[in-house]
Amino acid sequence: MMGNRRLLSCCAMTSRRTFLGTTVIAPVIGLTGASLLTQTAYAAALTKDQRDKMTPDQVIAQMKQGNQRFRAGKMSKQDYLAQKRATAAGQYPAAVILSCIDSRTPAEILLDAQLGDTFNARVAGNIANDDLLGSLEFACAVAGAKLVLVMGHTACGAIKGAIDNAQLGNLTGLLSKIKPAVEATRYEGDRTSKNDAFVDEVAKTNVRQTVGAIRQRSEVLAGLEKEGKIKIVGSMYQLVGGRVEFLA
Ligand SMILES: [Zn+2]
Questions:
Q1: What whole-number distance in Å separates Cα of residue 123 and Cα of residue 125?
Q2: What residues does 185 pair with on adjacent strands?
Q3: Cα of 108 to ligand 1 centre, how many Å?
Q4: Which residues contact 97 (CB under 8 A, 6 or more apart)?
Q5: What is the pTM of this model?
Q6: pLDDT per residue as tens digits for the range 170-189
Q7: Separation of CA 152 and ligand 1 centre (Å)
């Protein structure tokens, strides 16, 4: 029993969890003697206390570090079963990410995050409609997330579709929400979907417009941001190179 306790204690001392893959020493004092399952679980997921202590800027900083690990091919080793156990009874995500459905842009992987770290809302062209705004409000005002990250990406098919005036079923209505970004993008030269540079400029404008729309159309989120409780920021993921660029 003593031996077992010492082992548990030892585990507790070195118990670490990773938020967005960043190594954090878990505050394990008082956990000695708890079940191994509890300790494993404790180490595998972000706790309410840990999340609540983070500032929006710290969340951004850790996302940047996670993306750096992704780009360097030095991602954290994931124990999904431990994460599943740790998060089954509750979740305390630090951020909510609004990104495109593109198969090449799964935010958790690009940011080296794990189960329980981030809420994820995905829609072609990362636009904001009422239902998405409601989802973001839930994430921050109800569940306590500190950051709303809008993530666009290069070579986005939805942006190309909006530039080309594509028409198809319900997609037509979705693309109409991106079109204001096409018009608002200042670009001299070839303003077609065949010009990668133009497509990416429109994607960037679209991210900025989505960030603006969130502030304008969600009193809840705009209020939380004014109080300094959350930040709403835009970003662009570069398919080539893998960098998530945070927009000022
Ligand atoms: Zn896309």
A1: 6
A2: none
A3: 16
A4: 107, 118, 119, 120, 121, 149, 150, 151
A5: 0.85
A6: 999 999 999 999 999 999 99
A7: 7
